[in-house]
Amino acid sequence: MSTAQLHWFKSSYSDSGEPGSCLEVAPTPTTIHIRDSKSTDGPQLAVTPTTWTAFVTYAAEG
């Protein structure tokens, strides 16, 4: 699947506080794609679902 075919979305928390500071994610069964919402044609990061879960857990803790 090309990145042009991905379904990108932002968290519902993106509208609070600093609306310009958002990440967008596009999950697939094998990869979570991540990009800056201000630079949608810029660099993207792709991680495994396990890595994404670990990141979200870490971020929620603190």
TrEMBL record:
Domain of life of the organism encoding this protein: Bacteria
Pfam families, alphabetized: DUF397
Protein name, entry field: DUF397 domain-containing protein
InterPro entries membership: DUF397 (IPR007278)
Boundaries of every DUF397 domain copy: 6-59
